[in-house]
Amino acid sequence: MNKSAKQHDWNWQPGRTVEAVHHPISLRLFCEAPYVPELFADDLENRIARLIQASGGAVAPTLQLQRGDRIWHIAGSADDVLLHTSCMMACLEDIFQYLGADSSQYDFGPPLVSEVFEGKWVCYPLMWFYWAQMEKALTAHLADGYTHVVYVDIARCSESLDPDRILSLLNELNADEKAVSILENMHHSWQRTGCPGVPLVPAFAILLKLYLKQVDDRLMAEGVTFVRLQDDFRLLCFGQDEADAALNLLKATLREIGLSTHRGKTGIVAVDQVLRHRYWKTLGLKRTLQHGIARPALNHALTFPWFRPAALKLLARLYGHNCRAMI
């Protein structure tokens, strides 16, 4: 990695950390947490600077967050959210230089490489905009005559990521030594207190991009046309046989890094079925209707100072019971 090639200085800037933590797409991961009001304190940048200066310390056990029938793990304190995000921001440009500008052609998960190269964090306030961009790219590919689309979702993605592999990749990139050292302490501490894989933190999507780079590279090397948003893949194929081969290739490559596909969300669909059901299935409308719109709406309201006090109270009252300490 040529450090002189950097275009923007993301290293240890508290303002960048605040921007990342306050973004609605980040907040949606842990907006039920009891410490969320702390993340909107007036002196937040000074708090971040103090955490960076102290180079970490005791790490709180993760909190368990229940949504539907699924238990997620989130960072256990506001300090852990802020420090982890600061460390990831310090590594950000090294990661995105490694991912390469071409990754924006198939990886539509925020933040986009193009956004980071322009010195931004995440341009759009809702994940829907990124789903729409992926669907637009998928439509463009379908115009080339593909007959089948392979839909693949990774099973229990966050719980299945290997923190040691992430740390190894960061070391290979020669990422900020101080940041990687703090991240190592945090992830190993979370592991020791019972957190499987990686908890949901504001930079989770960045960790996932780094983790899946090997998979993306393998698909491209084998000539598979695909688009992806986080752990959701769409492989475009000519015919059933090619679709079967592409799916088997993806499954095998995921196994190499300790991941597997979600049976209920993985399948091969003919193009006519894709066009008929795409907006219902792929834009998340079904999931939104199933799980309600109140929490996402309150989460988004946190970004507006005049709505924030009421939104914080309602989130705590309506959803605070979903979040509890590790037993």
Structure description:
This protein has one domain. It is globular and about 55 Å long. Helix 3 (44-54) crosses helix 4. The chain has 15 helices and 7 strands. A hairpin with a 2-residue loop joins strand 1 (63-67) and strand 2. The chain has helices at residues 14-22, 24-27, 44-54, 78-99, 113-117, 127-142, 157-160, 163-172, 177-192, 204-221, 240-256, 271-281, 285-291, 294-301, 308-319, and strands at residues 63-67, 70-74, 148-153, 225-229, 232-237, 267-270, 323-325. The chain is of the alpha+beta class.
Helix content: 40-55%
Structural class: alpha+beta
Total count of strands: 7
- Strand order within the widest sheet? 4-5-3-6
Largest sheet: 4 strands, antiparallel
State the helix count: 15
What is the residue-mean pLDDT, rounded to a whole number?
A: 89
Kindly estimate the percentage of residues that lie in beta strands according to DSSP: 5-15%
Number of domains: 1
Order of H and E elements: HHHEEHHHEHHHHEEHEHHHHE
Low-confidence stretches: 1-9
Write a brief caption for the model:
The protein is α+β, with helices and mostly antiparallel strands. It has 15 helices and seven strands.
Provide key terms for this protein.
single chain, 327 residues, alpha+beta, 4-stranded antiparallel beta sheet, 3-stranded antiparallel beta sheet, 7 strands, globular, disordered N terminus
